[in-house]
Design a protein that fits this description.
16 helices; Dipeptide-binding Protein, domain 1; alpha+beta
């Protein structure tokens, strides 16, 4: 019965018209719809990459939180990091050449490369790194730098940063991996220089930014490894509709686009564009329905939260909406993580959901109601409508509303979202996946919402005990999170890209962060 309901909801939304899809044919050297040319065909200085991303950023301030794949792609292209952990398991040193702990792990020292510069020719110094870290600690990087006594960080010399540590941390290397380096003097001149008129420390500078159209990036000649950065210009367009983005790719307008729907993945894999393929990058990722139990009394009763869990047919959601590119999430951590414990989801049982709601004081004459808010990216809208239909059968009325990505992120931090979808991505250490749930972060919707659970999460994220002991802690957290039911896992995902054959796909895995974000530095043509 429910599968039929979902099928009706999705009619027309899940199927892309193959008749409207074109094939770009062989790659050409120029023109608005041309694929990138090969190394032999295009001289240095004329190598242009056309990228289609999802969400246009409102700012490139690395400490304000970038928006979606689009915002992060631009941010990682413009700002250099000290090092980069990639999806293929490698740690690549970038602006730093090395790091080490002192003997008792009370200090962490970073050694910068000699001669590195910002795009304006000024040297990148230890003071710039400290300034960047202090700004991060005051913003979205607060939890990632919780182990660092950032106020007492100091420059031993122009290229040596010394970070006193408040505690040992199992994720320090991974947490430092995403810290983007800004020019202190430039940023202090104007607030606009923090997020709009930025000074590049990475491989590219922003040449132009036309809101609603796109961003043009040009190679930064001062970048320490500029000679090995292939593309001279990257034209980034932002198209929130994946259907529209896909059709443009199939018409040859882009060389690479990000994909989220299985329909889109299957269509490209099936040859909708003759000179393109799908590249799938495995990442550590869990997405699900999150209830804000801190700011909204509607979810205070555990019976209500569990009733919602029983009323959602997660396997049907994943198979019907998410499709072949995704799999059912069955715990707080992704199944590929070393600390993963299978808890499963609540078995789909509408009668059980009604029983729990009755215990909480609700029935068909006094229906439980709440608002589900979602970002307009990807398949969130389809998921929201399907969940709305499922919960209606259990006497739960759901109002669904959509917001653009930037507004959604801002409202999460402002704690005005009652219920929504959240995705947690990281690399190999589980604390790096769900550190956004820790109790000191600003967004209450992300938190587990229970004091004991949050204390246990804090212990999990800060313990440096033997792995076997830490696994026990993580297993306990996953079991208790299942019972508390403020987060209903729905799906695990990979990161998928549709890529022109003119692009060297062997470089994609080394051009994707371990948490799934693409960066341009290593992309090249065949």
């Amino acid at each position: 019965m429910m599968k039929k309901v979902i099928s009706l909801i999705l009619t027309g939304a899940m199927v892309l018209s193959l008749a409207a899809c074109g094939s770009s044919g062989a790659s050409q050297a120029e023109g608005s719809g041309d694929a990138a040319a090969t190394t032999d065909e295009v001289a240095e200085g004329e190598r242009v990459l056309k990228v289609g991303m999802d969400v246009e950023p409102t700012s490139i301030d690395p400490n304000a939180g970038a928006d979606g794949q689009g915002g992060m792609f631009v941010a990682y292209s413009v700002f250099g990091t000290l090092w980069m952990l990639t999806a293929d398991g490698e740690t690549n040193m970038i602006l730093a050449e090395s790091y080490e702990y002192n003997e008792d792990k009370t200090e962490f020292t970073v050694h910068l490369r000699e001669g590195i510069k910002f795009a304006d020719g000024n040297p990148i110094t230890a003071d710039d790194v400290i300034y960047s870290l202090q700004n991060a600690a005051a913003g979205t990087g607060a939890m990632r730098l919780a182990a660092v006594d950032i106020e007492n960080a100091y420059a031993e010399d122009e290229t040596t940063v010394v970070l006193p540590l408040l505690m040992d941390s199992p994720t320090l290397i991974e947490d430092m991996n995403i810290m983007m380096i800004m020019e202190k003097e430039w940023c202090e001149q104007s607030e606009e220089n923090l997020g709009l008129n930025v000074m590049a420390s990475g491989a590219y500078s922003i040449e132009s930014w036309e809101t609603g159209m796109g961003i043009t990036l040009v190679k930064n000649p001062e970048y320490y490894d500029a000679e090995n950065v292939y593309y001279d210009e990257i034209d980034v367009s932002f198209v929130s509709s994946e259907d529209t983005r896909l059709l443009s790719f199939e018409s040859g307008d882009y060389d690479i686009i990000c994909l989220s729907s299985s329909n889109a993945v299957d269509e490209i894999a099936g040859g909708a564009r003759a000179d393109a393929s799908v590249v799938t990058v495995p990442i550590q990722s869990v997405s699900g329905l999150t209830m804000n139990v801190i700011d909204f009394d509607e979810f205070k009763d555990q019976n209500v939260r569990q009733a919602i869990g029983y009323a959602i047919d997660v396997p049907t959601l994943v198979s019907t909406i998410m499709g072949s590119a995704y799999q059912e999430a069955t715990s707080l951590l992704p199944s590929g993580n070393y600390a993963y414990l299978y808890t499963g989801n609540y078995e789909y049982d509408v009668d059980k959901a009604k029983e729990l709601l009755k215990e909480a004081g609700y029935d068909e004459n006094n229906r439980f109601a709440f608002t589900l808010t979602y970002s307009d990216a990807g398949m969130n809208g389809q998921l929201a409508e399907a969940i709305q239909a499922m919960l209606a059968e259990a006497n739960i009325d759901v109002t669904v509303e959509t917001q653009d990505g930037a507004t959604y992120m801002n409202n999460m931090v402002a704690n005005t979202i009652m219920c929504g979808f959240s995705t947690y991505m990281g690399s190999y250490e589980p604390a790096g996946i769900i550190n956004a749930r820790r109790k000191n972060i600003p967004a209450n919707m992300s938190k587990l919402g229970d004091g004991e659970l949050e204390d246990l999460l804090e212990e999990c994220c800060t313990s440096v005990a033997e792995e076997s002991e830490r696994i026990e802690l993580w297993h306990s957290l996953q079991e208790q999170s299942y019972e508390f039911a403020s987060f209903i896992p729905i799906y695990e995902s990979n990161q998928n890209y549709a890529v022109s054959d003119a692009i060297n796909t062997e470089n994609i895995n080394s051009s994707v962060q371990a948490d799934g974000y693409l960066f341009a530095t290593k992309l090249s043509a065949n």
